[in-house]
């Protein structure tokens, strides 16, 4: 369970975006098969570039985010809960601006690289749990610590092969 220590500093949009990329990549068909997409696979850029040109990188991230969102929503439900791939509208808009302004953030060379980077984002103290995992209240999304807490749950799950769906509820 995530505990708000009252630090009050806002989450970094780049960290949230990177967390989405890493979990999105690790959950795709070729890695852990949590969702059936391959938007972040090595060859997807070849197929998307002729259609989306310079926006192919953002298109890859939008695609994997939607694939992961659907699986998370199915496991958790849609309504009063938020998760990494469905955040409050204000935060989603900020993330969209951050991603649109960034260079292609979707390049990952290997599962090991993605797991290592995910570990760096994590607080490193979550026990692996399968299924929906209540992390805290929606108010905690205003505190930067949620990113590390959620990353920790994903690291633990990917290590042991569980599907986990950390979420925040009112």
Spell out the blueprint of helices and strands.
Elements: H1 13-27, H2 44-52, H3 56-76, E1 81-83, H4 89-101, H5 111-121, E2 131-137, H6 145-160, E3 164-169
Parallel strand pairs: 2-3
Antiparallel strand pairs: 1-3
What features would you describe in this structure?
With 170 residues, the protein is mainly α. It has one domain (13-169). It is 50% helix and 9% strand. The protein is built from six helices and three strands, in the order αααβααβαβ. It has helices spanning 13-27, 44-52, 56-76, 89-101, 111-121, 145-160; strands at residues 81-83, 131-137, 164-169. Strands 1-3-2 form a three-stranded mixed β-sheet. Strand 2 (131-137), helix 6 (145-160) and strand 3 form a beta-alpha-beta unit. Helix 1 crosses helix 3, helix 2 packs across helix 3 (56-76) and helix 5 (111-121) runs antiparallel to helix 6 (145-160). The longest helix is centred in the middle third of the chain and has 21 residues, at 56-76.
């Amino acid at each position: 369970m995530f505990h708000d220590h009252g630090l009050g500093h806002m989450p970094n949009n780049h960290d949230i975006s990177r967390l989405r990329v890493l979990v999105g990549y690790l959950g795709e068909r070729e890695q852990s098969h949590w969702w059936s997409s391959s938007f972040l696979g090595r060859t997807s850029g070849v197929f998307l570039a002729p259609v989306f040109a310079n926006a192919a990188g953002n298109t890859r991230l939008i695609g994997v985010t939607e694939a992961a969102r659907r699986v998370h929503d199915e496991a958790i439900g849609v309504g009063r809960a938020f998760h990494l791939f469905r955040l409050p509208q204000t935060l989603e808009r900020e993330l969209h601006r951050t991603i649109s302004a960034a260079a292609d953030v979707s390049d990952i060379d290997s599962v090991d690289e993605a797991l290592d980077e995910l570990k760096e984002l994590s607080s490193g103290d979550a026990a692996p749990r399968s299924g929906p995992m209540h992390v805290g209240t929606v108010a905690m999304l205003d505190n930067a610590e949620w990113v590390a807490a959620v990353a920790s749950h994903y690291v633990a799950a990917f290590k042991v092969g569980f599907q986990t769906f950390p979420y925040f509820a009112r």
